[in-house]
Prior knowledge:
Elements: E1 7-12, H1 16-27, E2 32-35, E3 54-57, H2 59-67, E4 80-82, E5 84-88, E6 94-98, E7 108-112, H3 113-126, E8 130-133, E9 137-142, E10 147-151, E11 156-164, H4 171-175, E12 180-196, E13 203-209, E14 213-220, E15 224-232, H5 233-241, H6 246-258, E16 261-263, E17 268-277, E18 281-282, E19 285-287, E20 293-294, H7 302-318, H8 329-356, H9 362-376, H10 379-390
Parallel strand pairs: 1-2, 1-11, 2-8, 5-13, 11-19
Antiparallel strand pairs: 3-7, 4-7, 5-6, 9-10, 10-11, 12-15, 12-16, 12-17, 13-14, 14-15, 17-20, 18-19
Helix pairs in contact: 1-3, 1-7, 7-8
The structure holds flavin-adenine dinucleotide.
Amino acid sequence: MSPSTPFDVAVVGAGVAGLAIAAGSAQLGLRTALIGPRAPVARAERSAPFDVRIYAIAPSAVDLLDRLKVWAAVDAARVQPVAKMRVFGDGGNELSFDAYQAALPRLATIVEESELLRALDAAAGFAPGLTRIEGAFDALQQEADAVRLALAGGQSVAARLVVAADGARSAVRAAAGIGAQELHYEQAAIVANFACERPHHGVAFQWFDPAEGVIALLPLPGERVSLVWSAPRLLAEALAADPGGLASRLSGRAQPHVGALTSIGPAQSFPLRRITVDRMVGRRLALVGDAAHVVHPLAGQGLNLGLADVSEVLRVLAGREDWRDPGDAVLLRRYERSRAEPVGLMRLATHALARLFARDDALSREVRNLGLSALNALPPLKTALIRHAAGPLARP
Ligand SMILES: Cc1cc2nc3c(=O)[nH]c(=O)nc-3n(C[C@H](O)[C@H](O)[C@H](O)COP(=O)(O)OP(=O)(O)OC[C@H]3O[C@@H](n4cnc5c(N)ncnc54)[C@H](O)[C@@H]3O)c2cc1C
């Protein structure tokens, strides 16, 4: 290929979404450039501590990674299936979701971010026709039949289609003039891993409490759990200032289920916000992952949405008419149309839940506790919700 021939696809951002779409695009036979700094990708020793960034990914996301030949490279000893989820309201009401009852092998799979990045990086390395460029995106310019990307350091790359996978603060999105509205939840998520005294049996626990926020304990392999505590700002600051005290603060909730907790690593804190973009596409441009949407993590769905974007872009590219180039506006419209509803629904649902469970008035308390009990008493609706969360590709 001559240096002036545009790539078919240039992906900006080598996070999970970017690596996945770059590998998938190259596997479709498209000449693909992946632009962005590379994360450290060493295989963790079996005994190495678990990454503090962990994801609960839906069965449909695992299916995508499987199709991209990534999942087989993920160390099975470092992933944990979630068989059941128990959700507790502040009135003591409980809602539970059970994979067995929905005839699914699992509700979700817990995997470390570092392990996902390592497996994706390996798949990208094997993908024929994938060129990695470790520079940072700086600016873009529309040309007659391509987009030219200028990278920091002076390099430039042209492509028929640019995929922005450069995260919540996407510079590509801004350079393309696509507006994004940011709403701050006045909350931060504290994440940390713990050893637990008793086996968790693959159960994830979540507590909703208007004073303390949303506390999730997700099962990790062995007798370990991972905490995601979305706390009001002041409490989050106090928790972050005393990470050693986290285990004792959690003991009242965790003790009856998994026994005492012991810290097994540092805690990290993430400010929580929602980002809504004006459009998911531009001229010869598609946004995927956090560049396209950021939602509250209480449902553990941000990356799942991002991987569903990836799956849809790949589906549209694979099914395109021979004479359409990958940046054709018709293809971009197909992508945008098919993602509008799932992204909108998830944004609405996570936002409504975050707001409902942050309010401490009697009416909100009544609504959420009645809601939990009513839903718990409706097994068919629960099964429908589980199947919806599992994604369209989940097979019973
Ligand atoms: C506390 C917490 C818990 C969560 N738990 C879950 C969960 O259980 N399940 C789930 O599905 N989701 C979860 N999420 C959401 C998930 O973390 C994000 O949706 C996901 O990480 C987004 O991935 P991404 O690849 O789109 O973006 P990122 O991970 O942000 O990757 C963006 C990449 O772009 C690169 N980049 C940035 N700027 C440039 C540039 N100018 N040039 C080149 N490269 C650039 C960056 O270096 C990075 O590699 C959680 C989020 C939080 C905060």
